[in-house]
Amino acid sequence: MNHFKDHFSALAERYAAYRPVYPNELAATLAQASPQQHHAWDCACGTGQMSVLLAEHFSTVSATDASEAQIKQVRQRHNIRYSVAAAEQSGLPDNSADLITVAQAAHWFDLSAFYREATRVARPNALIALISYATLTLDNHPEADALVQRFYHQDLAAHWPPERRHVENAYGDLPFPFEPVMLSPPAMRADWRLPELLGYLSTWSAVRQTVRATGQNPLARLAGELTQICSPDTVLKVSWPLNIRAGKIQK
């Protein structure tokens, strides 16, 4: 198996509990744009957030992730086959997938090797979709949002992996050797209270890297500040800018 940059295995349980849920409309949009709905490959599936949505639209879903810890936390469905495999060496059959998705993970890949693997696995004219979402916004609480933005842009600035810039650029700066397919992403929103927000922030790779580098958890300060302005009953309206870079695999 290829070496991969593993930022999340140690956080697999938190990842499963706190990462946001993709909107159902996202899977419907991708299925409609796919040539058929027989088989989807959800690459770098994590704990299956995207896989379970695709399972509502495709006969079978192959969901792979290089992290065994993530696969142990997956959300089971009768038509999803989970396996531990690198993005560049999936082990899936040739010419088998109508749709290939990568949600919030393509920036970690050896893209040239992954694109070769995707082309091998894809059926002719299959859809490939690189999905990403950047920094959240707290739409109904400007004061709390300002603290979260400071946390992201200032407190953690020195500890984000360099690949993070690709997410901020909506993957527009990644090579993408496929015929573009323009898809409009649906809104991605959640209603959270403070424990859910802090749980999500704890899954950020830069938080873990800051702890490693400094021996201190940067969330402690932010949690104290947010507790002063958010009561236990405060509902925070959270949104993320969701992006889809899609293309047709011609072969």
UniProtKB/TrEMBL annotation:
Alphabetical UniProt keywords: Methyltransferase, Transferase
GO biological process, one term: methylation
Family matches, as Gene3D superfamilies: Vaccinia Virus protein VP39
Family listed: Belongs to the methyltransferase superfamily.
Matching SUPFAM superfamilies: S-adenosyl-L-methionine-dependent methyltransferases
Lineage: superkingdom: Bacteria
GO molecular function, one term: S-adenosylmethionine-dependent methyltransferase activity
Domain Methyltransferase type, chain residue ranges per copy: 42-129
InterPro entries, sorted: Diverse_substrate_MTase (IPR051052), Methyltransf_11 (IPR013216), SAM-dependent_MTases_sf (IPR029063)
Protein name: Biotin biosynthesis protein BioC
